[in-house]
Amino acid sequence: MISRRDLLQYSGLAALAASWPAFGQEPPAPDFRIDIAPLTLDLSPRHRLKTTAYNGQVPGALLRFKENRPVTIEVTNRTDRPEVVHWHGLFLPPEVDGAVEEGTPPIPAGSSARYTFTPRPAGFRWYHTHTMAMNDFTRGQYSGQHGFLMIEPAAEPARYDQEFFLALHDWDGYLLASGDGAMNPGYAVATINGRAMGSGEPLRVRQGQRILLHILNSSPTEVHWIALAGHDLRVVALDGNPVPTPRPVPMLRLAPAERVCAVVEMNNPGVWVLGEVRRHVQALGMAVALEYEDRRGPARWEQPSDLIWNYEQFTGAKPTLPEDPPVIVPLVIESKFRGHGAMEAWTLNGKSYPEAAIAPLERGRRYRLQFVNRSMDDHPLHLHRHSFELRNLGAPQDIHGILKDVVLVPALGRAEVEFAADHPGATLFHCHQQNHMDLGFMMVINYA
Amino acid sequence: MVLLALLCLPYLARAQANYEIQVYGAETVPPQTLMVELHSNFTAQGQQATIDGVYPTYHQEHETVELTEGLNDWSEVGFYIFTSEQDGHGAQWVGDHIRPRVRVPDSWGWPVGVSLSTEIGYQRSEYSTDTWTWEIRPIIDKSIGRWYFAVNPALERTLHGPDVNQGLGFAPSAKIGYDFTRVVSAGIEWYADYGAIGNIAPARNQQQQYFIVTDLNVSPLWEINIGVGVGASSATDHLIIKAILGRRFDWGRHSAVD
To answer: Do residues A183 and A174 lie in contact, with contact meaning Cβ atoms separated by under 8 Å?
Structure first.
């Protein structure tokens, strides 16, 4: 049964038009425009590279949408190959979600298209290319095609005086032999908002302020650990969704595509480093200065001695979803050796995309995806068009209340998430590591 | 590398061979890591006469300890202890070499791995009439899927001994390997010595050796290489069995935040 709300959502208000109306009529002006075009980017005085970006900047423009208010974005592809823009974390119909595998039409080179949809749910989302890169480390998520997307909530998860949007990214990739016997990407430069340490503007704050950091890991493949020297970070939302138990932490861990919103009290005047905790990554440039008003001088870093993070610390006491038994869907993740001179291929339950499949979902039912990672790599797993609830991360007890759209499943580890099948249509599930999804780690889930 | 053999050819009759038989890859040992390798080479068919005071190679067992310490992400230094065991001569120390090496960092994005090693050392006259030798070895390698290619066009010079006036010698080696599984690779290694540049030795005096080898990649900590080689010229030992067993030791205080 299709409800009126569905009709509005999936037909009238959600459409991707690749050509303009006939009879010379000009379409109404879009709410936003995105130009995809080549860009020469100065990551630092020593690192200039050619990439592809949105609206001539990295990250792309911050888009602010109102929840449930339809928007139209006109995207012009000024590159020489097809592109598609994925609206990550939104509940969108497959025609506009931005994955060709689900049915979103690609935007041909030199063409424009419009994405019209009703944005929801509220929170910190993002948009990015959803194309293959294979061994070309200038394409896909290796490029600069990512931007912040904020769907304004009716109520903020935390009071704040100033907010900053920060994107973590790795650049200038090359193939590197890794300990698991296969090749993986390595990077020459790591940045925050497209600038290596010392090359961008500092974050300027005043004593007594409460700042809200919206941090996105847009890296094609790398997990990042972020700390702000001299300050704790109070995590209030993960992947844009408020956490049941906000908690101050010394550092954040963000897998590719994950977002963290954290409040910081500006109560320790000085000039501080906000950056990668691991020395060798910070040395590649992933840091930015945070400067209190009237304070100058070199930014100060306090090196943590260990990496500390877990999702469970933000769990809630009560389940978010009803407790009727979900349908259990085991998903076993394995790698396929392709030689010491190649990146590994990937399988889900023994099959790679497009053969990988599970039974069609029944609309309205709840499903529990049981991830069993039998590989030596961590995997940031992303489900399109839905949020899921973290339910088990390998410990004896289940957890509740943490809603996300990406979960990092550690090497040789397990994780379980639950979601309600309430957004019918083809739904892509994949590892958000670009080289993993390129090499088979994807699956289209269909609804019955 | 067929270290001492290549250093001493085309005067094979006065030299010994086969203390380290290995085609180098371009990778260097990571910093704060010590690579300990034992090279075990047995000459099943070789030179049977003592010539110019140099012991015969026939049924000699060579045990070489190679210690390689990573200095940083792009350099290392290796040290060799050569020994020989043979009926009638017992276990003997043969000599020592030192070998610094630098490489092109991965971050330069070169399409092939490239490194350059230089090696200098001493060996006793009972095992080589040329007692002090020097070598410079460019190393180029490439992995493509399951295939592995490496070439070492080495140049060498005698610093003390009868061949001191021979100038630079040319002693290339190469390897082609194929990964049958994640653990098991196999391939062919080729070692040659053409004598002095500008005065290439006649074919019968050149050294030409071919090894069928297997590499067992059982762990990132371990290196295992086993092979059987035949000599394709009269100046070459005719049948050699070789093995390399290596273990990496991480001695630094690494933490998760390094």
So the answer is: no
